[in-house]
Amino acid sequence: MFVAVVCCELHLPQSGSLKSKRRVVHSLVDRIHRRARVSVAETAHHDLHQRAELGIAAVASEEAPLQRLCEEIRRLVDAEPEATVTAWEVQVLEEAG
Asked: Which architecture characterizes domain 2-94 according to CATH?
């Protein structure tokens, strides 16, 4: 079993309030979850208007499908016009067992 964990940092330059940030972040989280069928959550920077961190996790029996899934998720995030990716870190872990 393989587990992919993605940490995605976002800059939201047009967000002037937490309400506008939440609108963009929740929309993106919902879109990623619906299209990629992965677990997604905002994991940091809850009190900042223009920064967000998303944690994304997926499980598969092989590594290659996880790599393709992470590439698909990156395309979804890059397509969000109100957010810019400032950091993208992918870890693929293999269960030893």
From this structure: 2-Layer Sandwich (3.30)
